[in-house]
UniProtKB/TrEMBL annotation:
LD-carboxypeptidase N-terminal domain boundaries: 15-130
PANTHER family: MURAMOYLTETRAPEPTIDE CARBOXYPEPTIDASE (PTHR30237), MUREIN TETRAPEPTIDE CARBOXYPEPTIDASE (PTHR30237:SF2)
Family statement: Belongs to the peptidase S66 family.
The protein, known as: LD-carboxypeptidase
Residue span, LD-carboxypeptidase C-terminal domain: 173-289
Record-linked SUPFAM superfamilies: Class I glutamine amidotransferase-like, LD-carboxypeptidase A C-terminal domain-like
Pfam family, one: Peptidase_S66C
Transmembrane segments: none
InterPro entries found in the cross-reference section: Carboxypeptidase_A_C_sf, Class_I_gatase-like, LdcA_N, Peptidase_S66_N, Peptidase_S66C, S66_fam
Keywords assigned by UniProt, alphabetized: Carboxypeptidase, Hydrolase, Protease, Serine protease
Length: 309
């Protein structure tokens, strides 16, 4: 299946902000609206913004309807997810992408939005794993917002990370796939699961027990999902938790245990995940991963060396 890339966003076009998961108030999007105005785009706030159903941004039907409306609207050229939390997997199977296929548009988010990143890739469309609208005003998050702008407007983004003890040297080229480890684990065996074979997998997670990280990595290994990887990129594993009796390993130690069973290059410490420095990446784009004793880089394979952040 050939992969389709939506056209780059242009000034004057319309961007919709919706929430497919946790509830959010419109005033929490002030920074995002100001920045999007500076980018020269129009803004539509979806019905899910300021809607409230327990912890969700409206019940499942409202969130589905809102997202579907933005998918189908020919005047909306990109959809930014307002925040993560939990809930996207509850509506994804009811979405109809037939009109979207006639006019693809960029869909951006991370964390719970890994569901959409993977589902779209399964359907043959690229999307953006990047900062969500609620975090546009986060202290230290300027790089995250700028990298999202670059991704939306079709500019090249390359990342570099320092040398890390667990790195495995090597070079790999392949389509980028991945996101939140907990969501990738949850998608196993569903219509949203994607193959990692021949691709460069990136991982991140937040607020998990260390033994949960081990359990999920073990599942990816035992289910054969790590076999055939071209390379592995490991981002932020933030606010990890431990039991009263310590698990005895960090998140990076846990991942390394399973990565050592294979021979692909592995790079740790990339600015991707639940930290202020959350660089946007295009899921489905062919990238080149290079890991040496001086550090690692993740670069667009077509134009290596330009637009570094």
């Amino acid at each position: 299946m050939s992969l389709h890339f939506p056209p780059s966003l242009q000034r004057g076009q319309r961007v919709a902000i919706v929430s497919t998961a946790r509830k959010i108030m419109a005033e929490e999007l002030t920074h995002a609206q100001n920045i999007l105005n500076d980018w020269g785009v129009e803004i539509t706030l979806g019905e899910s913004i300021a809607s409230d159903f327990h912890q969700f941004a409206g019940d499942d039907e409202l969130r589905r309807r809102d997202f579907q409306r933005q998918l189908d609207d020919p005047n909306v050229h990109a959809i930014l997810c307002a925040r993560g939390g939990y809930g996207t997997a509850r509506i994804v199977d009811e979405l109809d992408f037939s009109r979207f296929a006639q006019q693809p548009k960029w869909i951006a988010g991370f964390s719970d939005i890994t569901v959409l990143n993977c589902h779209l890739l399964r359907l043959g469309y690229a999307s953006i794993h990047g900062v969500m609208a609620v975090l546009f005003g986060q202290a230290g998050g300027e790089m995250a917002v700028e990298s999202l702008r670059r991704a939306l407007f079709g500019e090249v983004i390359n990342y570099q990370a320092p040398a890390m003890p667990h790195n495995r040297f090597g070079t790999a080229t392949g389509e980028l796939v991945g996101g939140n480890l907990s969501l990738l684990h949850t998608l196993t065996g569903t219509p949203s699961q994607v193959s990692f074979v021949g691709r460069i997998l990136f991982l991140e997670d937040l607020d998990e027990y260390l033994y949960h990280i081990d359990r999920m990595m073990l599942h990816l290994h035992r289910s054969g999902q790590l076999a055939g990887l071209a390379g592995l990129v490991v981002g932020h594993f933030s606010l990890m938790r431990d039991n009263a009796v310590p698990f005895g390993a960090t998140a990076y130690d846990v991942i390394d245990r399973y990565a050592q069973l294979y021979d692909f290059p592995v790079a740790y410490g990339f600015p991707i995940g639940h930290e202020a420095e959350n660089g946007a990446v295009v899921v489905g784009r062919v990238v080149r991963l290079t890991v040496t004793d001086s550090g690692s880089s993740l670069a667009d394979a077509v134009d290596v060396g330009a637009g570094k952040l």
